[in-house]
Amino acid sequence: MTQHTHLGSLKRIPDISGIWPDEARDFTPWLALPENLALLAEALGIGPDAKGFLTFLEQSRADIEEACGFSLTWDYMEGRDGGRATVERRGVRISDEAQWPDQHRWLFSKLDSMRRAFHSPVRALDPDSLALI
């Protein structure tokens, strides 16, 4: 079992390779712990009001999806505190290592498109003025 580093609070670290040498084996399990997700949510200013943020962002859905170049699935995750906008690639076998380079290129491309498309709308979020659900 991987030993998890307790950081206490989030701060910018120029080189995290000494903390999480392997993203999948070290960082992802660390981030998946509820207390670390709570730290991240606090640092980003999100939390129980995440659905309100998603509602706000979904008002710009057409613009966001046009900027992405593909449709997104907007999921309010009933019964949970969060929500998400996702894209899915079907017909892939994640266990087939020969497909990994292509899968990683696809994932990077989609993440980069989403980052660019969501950048301005997310920066426009004002938690104090949103009518959160």
What does the model show?
With 133 residues, the protein is mainly alpha-helical. The protein folds into two domains: 16-45, no CATH class; 48-123, no CATH class. It has helices at 23-32, 34-44, 50-58, 61-68, 100-123, and strands at 73-75, 84-86. Strands 1-2 form a two-stranded antiparallel ribbon. β1 and β2 (84-86) form a beta hairpin. The radius of gyration is 17 Å and the shape is globular. 3% of the residues are buried.
Total helical elements? 5
Oligomer: single chain
Structural class: mainly alpha
Distance between the termini: 39 Å
- How many separate domains make up the residues? 2
Radius of gyration: 17 Å
The average pLDDT score comes to 80
Strand content: under 5%
Strands, total number? 2
Tell me the helix content. 40-55%
Give keywords.
single chain; 133 residues; mainly alpha; 2 domains; two-stranded antiparallel sheet; 5 helices; globular
